[in-house]
Amino acid sequence: MDSDRAKQERIALMALAEETDKALASSGRRCLICGGHGAVSVIENGKLTAFGRIEEYRAGTTD
pLDDT for 20-43, tens place per residue? Predict the structure, then answer.
């Protein structure tokens, strides 16, 4: 994928997520970002921040 295009897409998606988060704020809800890699996140000060407790999954282990 073209790196400039990918960067533009990330910027546009972050802007959309920030707009959605602001719209949800009055109801006490947040825009959760589930990128497929890493933790579920929210936007804090223009950056993604992990939301809630982070758990690690390891295949083949039991706890």
Answer: 999 999 999 999 999 888 889 999
